Amino acid sequence: MASHRKVPLDNQELRKTGFWLNQVFMIVSTIVGVYLAAQSGLQQALTFDTYSKMEDNYYLRMSLYEELKDNIGEVEHYATEVLAKSPALQIIKDNRPPMDLYVWETMRYHPATLETPSEILTEVRRFYGKSRQLMDKAEKRNLGAAYAGEQLKLLTDHMQQNVLPALAHSAESLQQALADEGVVIGSLKELNRAD
């Protein structure tokens, strides 16, 4: 067996101050770089989340608008074409409009619902409650059919003139706020599908 020669280690470089300063600067620059990258990524994620929630709320308001518009039209038709003529009780019952409440009921479980202006939600809730109450009273003959029709017509006029435009305006303001930031409605959903 050959004897192993000990090779002296050159540790002169470790004793120099420049070496240690270089190592400290590399560590500090790495930490700062990672921190700045994380901050930038977090900011981008928060911005995307904010815009995505605004877009969801836009779709929610527009869905409510369309459903409500249809229901108001049905109630108005019932009031003017059925109840106003004071028909027989069976005709009143047979022609009662079956209001579609899918969006309204679904909104209970949607986190963006309470981002919709409360005065709009209150008006929608009142419309459904009052119209149901007036139709029930007309069917039970607690109110005259013609009078119930007049009251329903007043209610639908109020909704068409005040509430529907306010709901449409609130959705359009979300769309405009997104457009001001360079986001087109639908583009965020397309980004999610691409992933």
Automatic annotation (TrEMBL):
Entry keywords, A to Z: Membrane, Transmembrane, Transmembrane helix
Protein's UniProt keywords contain Transmembrane helix: yes
Transmembrane domains' residue ranges: 20-38
The protein's name in its UniProt record: Chemotaxis methyl-accepting receptor HlyB-like 4HB MCP domain-containing protein
Lineage: Bacteria, Pseudomonadati, Pseudomonadota, Gammaproteobacteria, Alteromonadales
